[in-house]
Design goal:
The chain is built from four helices and two strands. The chain is an all-alpha fold and 174 residues long. The protein has a two-stranded antiparallel ribbon. α1 packs antiparallel against α2 and α2 packs antiparallel against α3.
Length: 174
């Protein structure tokens, strides 16, 4: 038999499952709260030049709710459940990829729409400086994201190659 577990075997201990569920709840709640706050703030910004104008209205409330709801759904789909310890179903993996792309487009589009709406009163010279700064910020953030993705892949590969108790910290240098 291959290394796959039988369906009747528990794939994770009950206390580990409880910890994983609690962790997933904390991550989901904090991510949804943060994105809802960001969406609400970006929806509330009406003008940035000559003075910052923030107004809480229906647009800000809808942006708050939409960002929070989409992030909640995103986290529930992307975070592994307690049943997915050893292997992820290819169909589920494809769904996760689609959600990641959709969430990225939704988030990026929402931020872009809020920025464009708040910059509509700025003249051409100042706007060019702002666009240049935003371009460099996006390049830097893309570089940080790429580095983080490479680092996480490396760490997952290392984690998968080691079993519990196989080596002590510091033995990796040998």
């Amino acid at each position: 038999m291959s290394g796959l577990k039988q369906p009747s075997e528990p794939t994770i201990k009950p206390e580990d499952a409880r910890v994983r569920r609690s962790f997933n709840r904390v991550v989901t709640f904090s991510s949804a709260s943060a994105m809802a706050g960001l969406g609400g703030f970006l929806g509330a910004v009406k003008q940035v030049n000559p003075a910052l104008e923030v107004r809480l209205d229906l647009v800000a409330a809808l942006a708050f709710l939409a960002a929070g709801a989409v992030t909640w759904l995103f986290c529930n789909i992307m975070l592994p459940s307690t049943d997915e310890v050893d292997q992820i179903d290819p169909a589920r993996q494809q769904t996760r990829k689609r959600w990641l792309i959709g969430f990225s487009l939704f988030s990026g589009g929402g931020i872009l729409a809020a920025v464009v709406a708040s910059l509509r009163t700025i003249n051409g010279g100042e706007l060019r400086h702002i666009v240049t700064g935003v371009f460099f910020a996006v390049v830097v953030l893309a570089g940080v994201g790429w580095f983080a993705a490479v680092l996480f892949r490396f760490m997952e590969k290392e984690d998968a190659s080691l079993k519990d108790g196989e080596c002590e910290p510091g033995e990796l240098d040998r």
